[in-house]
Amino acid sequence: MTEFVGVGNMVRWVAATGVEAAVAGIAGYVREDFCRWQSFHKTPRTASHTPFGVIELMPTSDSVTYAFKYVNGHPSNPARGFQTVTAFGALADVSNGYPVFLAEMTLLTALRTAAVSAVAAAALARPDSRRLALIGAGSQAEFQALAMRHALGIDRVTAWDTDPAALVKLARNLGPLGFDVTLAGSGREAVRGADVVTTCTADKALATVLPDAWVEPGMHVNAIGGDCPGKTELDPAILRRAGVFVEYTPQTRVEGEIQALGPDFPVTELWEVLTGRRPGRTSAGQVTVFDSVGFAVEDFSALRYLRDAVRGTPWVERIDLVAEPEDPKDLFGMVTAPSPIGA
Ligand code: NAD
User: Fold this and answer.
1) pLDDT at residue 41 above 60?
2) Which pick of 167, 188, 257, 290 has the fewest CB atoms within 10 Å?
3) 262 and 236, same structural domain?
């Protein structure tokens, strides 16, 4: 039998755990897995692009456990009543290939993306950071705010979105959590004087939601919305004067903010900073950019954390996902002598 966490149980688990605690827990597993980077089989994700959006498959393995995630990215979805990003994923036993754990990952992806932002910000942002500017107030936004509180103690947020309703929703969700939220009248206003800027917009375009002129010395830019060929958020001039940090270089060169800057543009992988192999921020005045696209090892960590967290709780079900004939060579026998209904 395969363990399964569906949406209902995921919601119950997150409600019982707390969003910030869940982000913190996943961040711990991400850090642990990034610090054993060499033990993972890594490959850029496989993307199927269409005029509607992209569908991606993200596999990785540490030789004991295999993981994959299915995720879509359809920026035009909200206008049609659908979400931009949905996902599900699984862990499998490398020794026999059987899937052992299956989970919804729309919520889990928001938690893990926040967790990775937290890990990066804790390593790269100025420790005295006090204010977050959020550009984009959609599905990921609240999770990203909680990530910055976990990483840096930030509880002041200034937000901008081209959709006023998204801003109202953000204030409604973050206010009761103890955030001091200011809704800005423009992106320029949101970013002025901020210590950390998180861009989490969705538009299939080489957009500039953050012009170079807005970026002040010492800012940490957490760029999560540019995650696909032809889909970016930052003025490339920012990247040329910043320290740029990525997850897995071969994937980010295709999908990230650095996609237009050529194969030799210098970047540091986050695991190198976490293991002390290469420096992170080198001065209080340096601009740092985390060019996040989302990488398979992070989903491996999130699934691993969730599996451990729900073990033995009512939030995990057991489902018969894999056909298991008594005689492993007699699969046909299962359909000629089916078990009675309900057996
Ligand atoms: P969403 O569609 O729910 O929200 C995006 C918001 O951006 C919307 O409210 C929209 O009005 C706003 N927006 C669009 N253009 C804007 C602009 N120019 N200025 C200000 N606001 C603007 O999407 P989401 O689920 O919150 O995801 C946000 C982005 O993050 C997407 O691009 C998604 O692909 C990406 N993402 C990345 C990762 C990662 O690991 N890096 C993970 C999940 C999602």
Assistant:
1) yes
2) 188
3) yes
**Nearest 5°: CA angle at 143, between 56 and 297?**
40
Write down the pTM of the prediction.
0.97
* Mean pLDDT for all residues in the chain: 97
Q: Do 255 and 329 belong together in one domain? A: no
Give residue ranges with CB within 6 A of ligand 1: 73, 78, 84-85, 109, 113, 135-140, 160-163, 166, 200-203, 207, 209, 224-225, 227, 292-294
Whether 343 shows a pLDDT value over 60: the answer reads no
Q: Which of 33, 155, 161, 227 is catalytic?
A: 227
Same domain, 103 and 221: no
Which atom of ligand 1 lies closest to the CA of 113?
40
Q: What is the CATH number of the domain that holds 317?
A: 3.30.1780.10
Number of Cβ within 10 Å of residue 320's Cβ equals: 8
Spatial distance between the Cα atoms of 181 and 185, rounded to a whole number of angstroms: 13
Q: Are residues 103 and 6 in the same domain?
A: yes
Centre of ligand 1 from the C-alpha of residue 324, in Å: 42
Is residue 221 situated within a structural domain? Answer: yes
H-run or E-run covering 215: none
Distance (Å) of CA 340 to CA 215, 325, 337:
66, 15, 9
Kindly state whether residues 152 and 271 are assigned to the same domain: yes
Q: How far is the CA of 225 from the centre of ligand 1 (A)?
A: 5
Decide if 343 is inside a domain.
no
pLDDT tens, 116-173? 999 999 999 999 999 999 999 999 999 999 999 999 999 999 999 999 999 999 999 9
Q: What is the pLDDT of residue 340?
A: 65
Please choose, from the candidates 249, 322, 320, the residue with its C-alpha nearest in 3D space to the C-alpha of residue 291: 249
Give residue 337's pLDDT.
80
Q: Evaluate if residue 342 carries a pLDDT over 90.
A: no
> How far is the centre of ligand 1, averaged over its atoms, from the C-alpha of 343 (Å)?
46
Q: How many domains does the chain have?
A: 2
